[in-house]
Amino acid sequence: MKTLILSSSLSENSRSYLLCKAVMGELIARGNNITFVDAMNIPMQPVHRGGTPEMETLARQVDEADNIIIGMGVHCYSVNDSLKILLDACFGKATGKFYGILCAAGGERSYLSTMQLTQICMNEWRMMQLPRIVYATGKDFKEDIIISSEVLERIALFSEEFHTIGNKLS
User: Fold this and answer.
1) Mean per-residue pLDDT for 10-24?
2) 82, 55 in Cβ contact below 8 A?
3) What are the two backbone dihedrals, phi and then psi, of residue 136, each rounded to the nearest 5 degrees?
């Protein structure tokens, strides 16, 4: 099973990046083939201005993946601008793929912010979502370490279910 993990944050202190890395470790331990993409390494511009070579590479990686995990931060109760640009420009061949969401937010009241990403993926590309989302807030981290046992348990469960269901759908 080929899994693409997209960490969409452009922050050097990204907590969603830490969630992505933790899930990647869990999936590698289960024998998954992982491609990890960090949006910080992708020069990007809006679709109407044309893509960059790195955006074209991501589009190819989306096409080649059996399933996708998207790591996102919350910005004004929505997806961040870099993720929106990458979705618009690079997810054209994501139709019908299985996907999951990892979300890091500043507070506990933004948990429904992932629903906008769900709507985009399900309506635009008819993607199938793992019903479990890993949602973490600032209190779940200390510097660059996930310290919450509850979040670590959710990461393990998310990874187990993503692996099991993803293999059945591939």
Assistant:
1) 94
2) no
3) -135, 155
Q: Long-range contacts of range 43-48, CB-CB < 8 Å, 24 or more positions apart?
A: 44/82, 44/85, 44/86, 44/89, 45/85, 46/85, 46/88, 46/89, 47/85, 47/88, 47/89
CB under 8 A, 24+ apart: contacts of 107-115: 107/137, 107/138, 108/137, 110/74, 110/77, 111/135, 112/77, 113/74, 113/77, 113/78, 113/79, 114/72
Homologous superfamily (CATH) of 2-169 is Flavodoxin domain (3.40.50.360)
Residue ranges covered by each domain of the chain: 2-169
Over the stretch 113-157, which tens digit does the pLDDT of each residue have? 899 999 999 999 999 999 999 999 999 999 999 999 999 999 999
